[in-house]
Design brief:
Structural class: alpha/beta
Strand order of the largest sheet: 3-4-2-1-7-9-10-8
CATH architecture of the largest domain: 3-Layer(aba) Sandwich
CATH topology of the largest domain: Carbamate kinase
Radius of gyration: 24 Å
CATH class of the largest domain: Alpha Beta
Bound molecules: adenosine-5'-diphosphate, aspartic acid, magnesium ion
CATH superfamily of the largest domain: Acetylglutamate kinase-like
Helix content: 40-55%
Shape: globular
Number of strands: 16
Number of helices: 15
Length: 475
Amino acid sequence: MSVHTHSRGLLVMKFGGTSVGDVTAVQHVLNIVHEARTTWPAMVVVASALSGVTETLLTQAYKVAQGDDSEVETTLQYLHERHHQLLTAFVSDRKMQQAVGEEIERLLQRLASLWQAIAVLGEASPRALDAVAGMGERMSVRVLAAALNTAGIRAEAIDATEIIVTDRQFQSAHPDMAATQLKVNTLLRPRLADGIVPVITGYIGATPEGIPTTLGRGGSDYSAAILAAALHADEVWIWTDVNGVMTADPRLIPEAQTIPRLTYREVAELAYFGAKVLHPKTIRPIIEAGIRLRVLNTFNPSHPGSEIVGDEPSILDGVIKAVTAVRHQRLVTVEGRGMLGVPGVAARTFTAVARTGTSVPLISQASSEQSICFAVPADTADKIVAALEQEFAKEIERRDIDRVWASDEVVILTVVGSGMQHIPGVAGRVFGALGAQGVNVIAIAQGSSEVSISLVVKAEDLQVGLRALHGLIRI
Ligand code: ADP
Ligand code: ASP
Ligand code: MG
């Protein structure tokens, strides 16, 4: 790992769910922190819940809301066992083991009460779901901090509800950076000065009144970025279960390779268009603060992984570096020959969509101005069509708008690479590769930052299309 360790200030390391998921993983984490400790004077660890735990917590919440509490006891038992397995493996001191064990029990009791409250109400509100979902991280950091202490690294578990201040947008809360900065200064800085490694929950925060929130699924990466920005850290290392950012999701394209260097804009585009390896909001606070970012493999720590850098002419070379897929989408089209005469039709369309609380990942450039076409998550399409039919009821009656309709399920395939816009023929190669495999392109959109081109294809063309585009990659 020594190859990564050249700067000497403050390092934020984030470990994802699989990285803290079992005994083998946590052993790697201890080794990684231990080695980094020898070169970095100050260090913060951000941790996710144990793999699968957040999903388990939310699934139970939905079940009890439906009146089914048959699995509550076995789930509590299962969560107890997952955490105790790590405690017994890594914490030898009886007293410490008991103290942390009691804290886990207290959190599990709280969880049981929350599930019970949801059961009584028969409804899981976003606020209640956030209180439930954050329990995984609260448990994991306690176990991890105890394991680090046992390994001779002074560490302290901290709930980010004490530090990351957010608005009340439950399930995808937005941080208040100024308020967070104050908490970081009063709560984290003194600990760092004392040589303690704070082990902070990813994913969660709290409103100014202290109501727990979450930053959205996969949000621990974002937590690391927020804390790093507030701390003016030198680097953020995201430790996950693959060798960095790859040319495609290795679960879909097994021969995908690591991309050794890519720009902030490239990685932001990749994350936005479905590469789960980084939460899409991670990049912004890091760019703004000029912090270096690496993505590394907990299970293969000597692999150099990926380095994310600012735009550099040497890598703005127009090659396609990666391809991603966003699944389970449908295309909504508003069309009619009289649309040109309808004032503000685009603005009204997207305002009506926004009112449904849906975000639109892609708007396609229509060849004529007689239609507007955009992608939405498949399960929201019917609701959106209904909202638009209502918005344009008059225009539909007058036949200015002929119809509003949603396609069958589609996927958005996106090719990413800086400088593509300067290279003639990239779009041609993309279409050629798909055409050669008989994949029909239903719609196309160029990313706003011009480092990507997105193509909408039928859901059943996912594998063939992805593979054809992956064949164009040169890194
Ligand atoms: P963590 O729990 O560490 O946050 P995630 O499961 O959220 O891990 O993200 C890592 C996963 O992202 C990988 O296991 C991989 O399957 C998936 N992934 C999707 N696209 C990419 C990509 N382009 N490069 C690397 N991993 C990707
Ligand atoms: N544990 C949370 C989730 O599963 C956050 C994360 O893993 O980043 O969504
Ligand atoms: Mg993740």
